[in-house]
Design goal:
This protein is α+β, with helices and mostly antiparallel strands. Helix content is about 30%, strand content about 35%.
């Protein structure tokens, strides 16, 4: 493919778990309470996203290392009543793939190109998290090699 988009790099982190806290009542500080509890216990959040669903309920998804899952679930179950979450679930065996570069927020088509590539490679996207300079997504660990290879067809990596 010609006309590759130059990026700063592509990174990958394996052995992650995607944790979802779903259906928390609005106004219960879901993000503050849950992420603070984990952080104070020394559990690193690799990436995070949140949204309010059609019922007006708060939802948050984040990735943590597999070794932290049991401790994280214990902490989140302790907070569950206070944050009034309907459900806490998780998915093991995830990888985070990040594409980074300067000025991503000023360049159209970066995210679209990333997810066009993952669709072509039939790579499931379980979560998306972005910043001004990075687009990160979680996929199944067994699909991460295919995702990185396909991204290499679209992006020029130093």
């Amino acid at each position: 493919m010609t006309g590759k988009i130059a990026v700063g790099g592509i990174t990958r982190k394996d052995e992650l778990v995607l944790v979802r806290i779903l259906g928390a009542r609005a106004g219960n500080d879901l993000a503050g309470k849950s992420l603070s509890s984990l952080g104070l216990a020394g559990i690193n959040i690799v990436c995070v996203t949140s949204f309010v669903d059609g019922e007006g309920l708060n939802n948050i998804c984040f990735a943590i290392g597999e070794r932290d899952l049991d401790q994280a679930l214990g902490l989140l179950q302790s907070d569950r009543e206070e944050i009034q979450a309907r459900e806490i679930d998780y998915q093991r065996g995830c990888s985070a793939i990040s594409i980074y570069g300067p000025h991503f927020s000023e360049r159209p088509a970066i995210a679209g190109t990333i997810f066009q590539a993952t669709a072509e490679a039939q790579v499931p996207v379980n979560m998306i998290s972005t910043s001004f300079s990075t687009v990160t997504f979680l996929t199944d660990e067994q699909c991460a090699d295919a995702a990185v290879a396909k991204l290499g067809e679209y992006f020029l990596v130093p």
